[in-house]
Amino acid sequence: MHYPNNKNYLKVEQKQQYWDDGYLFPIPAISFEQSKAWRNELETIETDWLDNGLSRPLNVYKRVNAHIVMPIAHDIAAHPAILDVIEGVLGPDIMLYSTEFLIKEPQTKHLVTMHQDLAYWGLGEIDGIVTAWLALSPASKQSGCMEFVKSSHKTTIIPHEDSFDELNLLSRGQEIKVDVAEQEKTCGALSTGELSLHHGLMIHGSGPNTTHDRRIGVVIRYISPHVKKPNEVRDYGVPMRGNCDRGNFILCAPPKGLFHPDDLLSYEKIREDQAQVMMAGAKGNTAMYS
What we know:
Blueprint: H1 12-21, E1 23-28, H2 32-49, H3 58-63, H4 66-69, H5 71-77, H6 80-90, E2 94-104, E3 112-115, E4 129-135, E5 146-149, E6 160-161, E7 175-176, E8 185-187, E9 194-199, E10 204-206, E11 215-223, E12 236-241, E13 250-251, H7 261-278
Parallel strand pairs: 12-13
Antiparallel strand pairs: 1-9, 2-11, 2-12, 3-10, 4-9, 4-11, 5-8, 5-10, 6-7
């Protein structure tokens, strides 16, 4: 369904800026009240399910394909105001590829090293995927907001190396084998309810959270159903808008409930298939995808 009067549709100049720079921010999308409600719901889940008999640590479900087992993740990704923005980049046919809650606790040293998303996804160097990053709490330089290297999406995939550092929030602690000077980084600060977009080849990362509040981001990756994964490897998507039945992805339904048994079974199958690509060649601790 289209919402032609929604103010969140990108203007022509915004679309051009995205393709020129490889990122676009800040984009007002979600009200403070809705963002606060989602944060409250998420933090209630964290309290109620931390030791509630799940087969994996709660953080794994929050970080890997949360939309398969957590209705809140699917609902955020399916919000019309966000999809309107995404349509400006991908066009009318939109699939949800992955969703995660990426949280930095207050006054901690966890960070995200400079990397390119597409380096490990097995999708090649494509334009047909975009990451939306929604702030459920303020994302400032002090709290560890994202930092982008302008126009770096116009390069190819750069070699990365894995550190598996416990303070690195990436699944492999991956980092590009190129030094990025501080003056090359653009600070992608966001207020609560604002979005940023970035291209899959964009070099980006983020520093630690030195503030007294949690930095809560919802990382939502959307993909065009027209994308074909090399070598016919199985991959998955949830239809969001338009015609997604192109035969290139296995289509998934929204979750039946919070950690519903049927969804947990689907989750394990998707993890198993994706881990063959995401963790290919890894020589360290692959707990997030093992």
